[in-house]
Amino acid sequence: MDYNRPLDGLRGIAILLVLLFHYNFMLGVGWAGVQLFFVLSGFLITSILLRDRDNPLDFYLKRFYWRRTLRIFPLYYAYLVLIGLVYIVAHMPAEYADYLPYLATYTFNFYPLIHTYSYEDYFFMHFWSLSVEEQFYLVWPLVIFLCSKKQLKAILIGIIIGAPIVRFVLGEMLAAKGYDAHYLGETVYRFTLGQWDGFAFGALIPVFGLKMDTRKVSQWWLMALIVLVGLGFLTSGFKIASLVYEQHVWSYTLLDLFFFLSILYVVSYTAAQKNLVIKTLESNWLVFAGKISYGLYVYHWIIWMAFNKYVRHYFPVDIVGFVVYLLICVAVATVSFYLFEKPILSLKDKLFSAPKPAYK
């Protein structure tokens, strides 16, 4: 798949949404940036796997996991080591030893199902989504390799239909055990199979070979926006992990659908059809934010803790404080990208390069 600059712009929007949400909940729906990441991952990873699947299985798997390992593991485990050193010196976070087996194995999203969790742990709370992604990466390459195009289509439709059912059933099970509404909603939100419809929506595009008629895009956007605004009004605006009107069952799928349409539009436009939306997504600042989005995501909570404790009181207006906080996050993530992540990423094509022609 050729590089698509606006997709990095979408990544930039996703991480900005998350940062706005986590900065004193400035943007209540900002948590949806994680949903956008999931749909983007489903699209990009499936496109890559379909391109490479004509290769022998051992090469296919080695190439995929080599590249994913270089992209995801070094920064993630470096962060765990860094916090481990803080724990040894300052004995914080106090739960580090309890969390570590789950963090080290990318199963942290299961921790609240087994142990009591406060959902106020700013060191690691955001790593639930990385666990969901890694679990997807563990399974999906084999599914793509072993299944026919027809089978893949059926599997994707099954996931999209099944994920809300999983969320409903898990919610009922947790309610029967006496969990309060907040804990129930947060735990259902983080459950792996309840979030895989995001990846499935993204995967629909390459598996079905979908293209949008961008000349009629206004009709698509109008329909999607009417649905989102209407349901958002009914639920007082997509609150994270809300159970109001059974929102934990359907709202994530609805947001995934919206982001699916957004990505479909971005990959369907032609150079002659560039408009303000595409030009904005191609802007240097959004594309750069997309490129360093992984570092921004990993570091932003620990930066927020320090900023909130020592600096934020100097900015009584939240938007001013957010700009300063954002600049600090960008500075840290930029240094990390160029001095740590990029040298490692340069090894991607040192092994298992030159895949055979794309899957048809």
Q: What Rg is obtained from the alpha carbons, in whole angstroms? A: 20 Å
Work out the helix count. 15
Which parts are unreliable, with pLDDT below 50 for 5 consecutive residues or more? none
Per DSSP E runs of 2 or more residues, the count of β-strands stands at 0
CA(first)-CA(last) distance:
13 Å
Structural class: mainly alpha
Biggest beta sheet attributes: none
Order of helices and strands: HHHHHHHHHHHHHHH
> What is the total number of structural domains?
1
The amount of helix comes to over 70%
Approximate shape:
globular
Question: Average pLDDT value?
Answer: 88
Tell me what portion of residues adopts beta-strand conformation.
Answer: under 5%
Task: Itemize the secondary structure elements and their pairings.
Blueprint: H1 5-22, H2 32-52, H3 57-90, H4 96-104, H5 111-114, H6 127-146, H7 149-176, H8 181-189, H9 192-208, H10 217-234, H11 247-268, H12 276-281, H13 284-291, H14 293-310, H15 318-345
Helix pairs in contact: 1-2, 1-13, 1-14, 2-6, 2-9, 2-11, 3-4, 3-6, 3-14, 3-15, 6-9, 7-8, 7-9, 7-11, 9-11, 10-11, 14-15
Protein model, in words:
With 360 residues, the protein is mainly α. Helix content is 72%, strand content 0%. The protein has helices spanning 5-22, 32-52, 57-90, 96-104, 111-114, 127-146, 149-176, 181-189, 192-208, 217-234, 247-268, 276-281, 284-291, 293-310, 318-345. α3 runs antiparallel to α4, α7 (149-176) runs antiparallel to α8 (181-189) and α9 (192-208) runs parallel beside α11. It is globular and about 55 Å long.
